[in-house]
């Protein structure tokens, strides 16, 4: 006799227990209702968007979809960690974040990069086009070199990049 849910798609919340991230698709061990292990061999494939990959911390929550009610065919969607999720994001804003406090935010007309330790830019060439403010907000400080400043060879600065770098 078939149960009332057999053959029907099932959708429910699950908790992340383990991640295997070394192959072509990220596989996760999750527990569902009443501690039920889900997926073939107890691993569920996590569906991610192209161009963005993450590895959520253990204990994160996601949505499991089991087509036809078959737990061995389950897939995991939308995994997030309530403990690390950035809150109160402006409508239309986007924030990329991790469990260590690193963030890239796209809010209003601004892009902001935050790190609790350091930011490393790696490229053969790095171009900054515009005024640069070191150690303070936009509009503060004085240029690190002003027109007429003498360099070590006693030449007067007429115009150079340093006139666009402001130090607070």
Describe the structure.
- The protein has 168 residues and is mainly β.
- It folds into three domains: 10-80, OB fold (Dihydrolipoamide Acetyltransferase, E2P) (Beta Barrel), CATH 2.40.50; 86-120, no CATH class; 121-168, no CATH class.
- It is 0% helix and 31% strand.
- The chain contains no helices and eleven strands.
- The protein has strands at residues 10-20, 27-31, 44-45, 61-66, 75-80, 94-97, 103-107, 110-114, 132-134, 142-143, 165-167.
- A five-stranded antiparallel beta sheet has the order 3-2-1-4-5, with no helix packed on it. The protein has a three-stranded antiparallel beta sheet with strand order 6-7-8, with no helix packed on it. It has a three-stranded mixed beta sheet with strand order 9-11-10, with no helix packed on it.
- Strand 1 and strand 2 form a beta hairpin.
- The termini are far apart.
- The model has no long low-confidence stretch (mean pLDDT 84).
Summed up:
This protein has no helices and 11 strands.
Write a concise keyword list for the protein shown above:
168 residues, mainly beta, OB fold (Dihydrolipoamide Acetyltransferase, E2P), 3 domains, five-stranded antiparallel sheet, three-stranded antiparallel sheet, 11 strands, 31% strand, elongated
Record field, number of beta strands? 11
Rg over CA atoms, rounded to whole Å, is 25 Å
Examine the secondary-structure arrangement and name the CATH architecture of the largest domain. Beta Barrel
Secondary-structure element pattern, one letter each: EEEEEEEEEEE
Which strand order spans the largest sheet, edge to edge or round the barrel? 3-2-1-4-5
Shape label: elongated
Number of domains: 3
Number of helices: 0
**Fraction of residues in helices?**
under 10%
What would CATH call the homologous superfamily of the largest domain? Nucleic acid-binding protein domain
Average pLDDT rating:
84
The CATH C-level name of the largest domain is Mainly Beta
């Amino acid at each position: 006799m078939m149960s009332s849910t057999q053959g029907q798609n099932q959708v429910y919340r699950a908790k992340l227990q383990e991640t295997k991230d070394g192959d072509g698709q990220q596989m996760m061990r999750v527990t569902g209702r009443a501690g039920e292990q889900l997926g073939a061999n107890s691993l569920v494939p996590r569906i991610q968007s192209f161009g963005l990959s993450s590895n959520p911390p253990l204990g994160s929550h996601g949505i499991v979809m089991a087509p036809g009610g078959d737990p061995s065919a389950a897939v995991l969607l939308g995994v997030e960690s309530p403990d690390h999720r950035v809150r109160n994001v402006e409508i239309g804003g986007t924030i990329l974040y991790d469990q260590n406090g690193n963030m890239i935010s796209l809010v209003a007309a601004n892009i902001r990069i935050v790190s609790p330790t350091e930011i490393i830019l790696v490229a053969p060439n790095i171009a900054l086009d515009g005024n640069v403010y070191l150690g303070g907000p936009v509009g503060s400080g004085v240029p690190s070199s002003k027109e007429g400043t003498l360099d070590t060879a006693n030449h007067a600065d007429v115009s150079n990049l340093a006139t666009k770098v402001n130090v607070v």
